[in-house]
What does this fold into?
Amino acid sequence: MKKIFIIVGFLVITLLTGSVFFNPFKGNVKILVDGKIIEADVKNCSVYDVLKEKKLSLENQDIVSPSLNTLVTDGMIIKIQRVKEANITVTEILKAETVRIWDKNLNVSEMIDLQNGMDGFLEKEVKVRYHDNTEVWRKVYNIANQKKPVSKVIIQGTSKTKRMYMMQKRMTVVKVHSLLATGYYPGPEDCGPYADGLTANGMKAGYGVCAVDPRLIPLGTKLYVENYGYCVAADTGGSIKGNKIDLCFDEYKDSSTYNPKYVKAYVLK
It folds into this structure.
């Protein structure tokens, strides 16, 4: 019985490993690695044995195909992909939008740059994975820095009406005042019996001129006043001192119904 077990065991070993001990395999394989092709003559061995013999080192994340424990065959191609990871910083530009404010108090030909736009940015820390120096994957893991974009704001007229005083070119805001606004009519109802219809600097009074304190806003200054439109600082008044502005109207009914209010007066150039 003991002899039978020995014979059976010998036959099993022969079946499993006969190719190694009794029918030695010889062949040739190609190794694709680091942009090169390396040929190797092999006998009965695994992929791991071939790489070891050729002194090809592997990093932990490198990908070997077929796997390291695969027995080699004649003509086999072994591919090694070098896998690397790197942390990089990527800056993304956030483009500024253009916002238009439509104003019925301005003619369609009039345009004011109320606010200059400025691009923002997003600085991202990114982990990138490469296979043989080719990017295959990336993931943002942190926002290191950021700045929101500032919108460019343009005031654009919508009216087709031509006014006595209109802007002659596209203008830009250079300064802003918060002023207490009132309205006046250049006739005797508001300016007394000696009203001659002219402003302090000799311009014809009407919609598009205003009275200011010259110590704050010099005469001749061009302004854009919210809810009124474009005007020229051309007049003065006994009660117009400091942060006050008196807006001229073409009709008494408009000036008399204009309720005093604080407005933003933008200085233009």
About this structure: The helical segments are 2-21, 47-53, 188-191, 252-256. The longest strand covers residues 134-147. The first helix runs from residue 2 to 21.
